[in-house]
Design goal:
By secondary structure, the protein is mostly helical. The protein is rod-shaped, with a radius of gyration of 17 Å. It has two helices and no strands. Helices cover about 90% and strands about 0% of the residues.
Length: about 70
């Protein structure tokens, strides 16, 4: 679970850096589009990791209640 949280945090940080780069740098429109695609991919991965995290938490709850 800790690993999943760390991955989520890392991806969120990467997205923040990309967004900052897009808004503060004078980069080409093509590069902006590439960066936006990358942030969308990261967002999708974040959502997948959050689902994994929920599943892990539920499994832990089930295991603890079985004890």
């Amino acid at each position: 679970m800790k690993s999943t949280k760390e991955k989520i945090s890392k991806l969120e940080l990467v997205n923040q850096k990309i967004e900052n780069k897009i808004t503060t740098s004078s980069i080409s429109e093509e590069e902006i589009q590439k960066q936006k695609i990358k942030t969308r991919e990261n967002e999708l991965n974040i959502q997948k990791l959050k689902l994994t995290q929920i599943t892990q938490e539920r499994e832990l709850e089930r295991a603890m209640s079985a004890i």
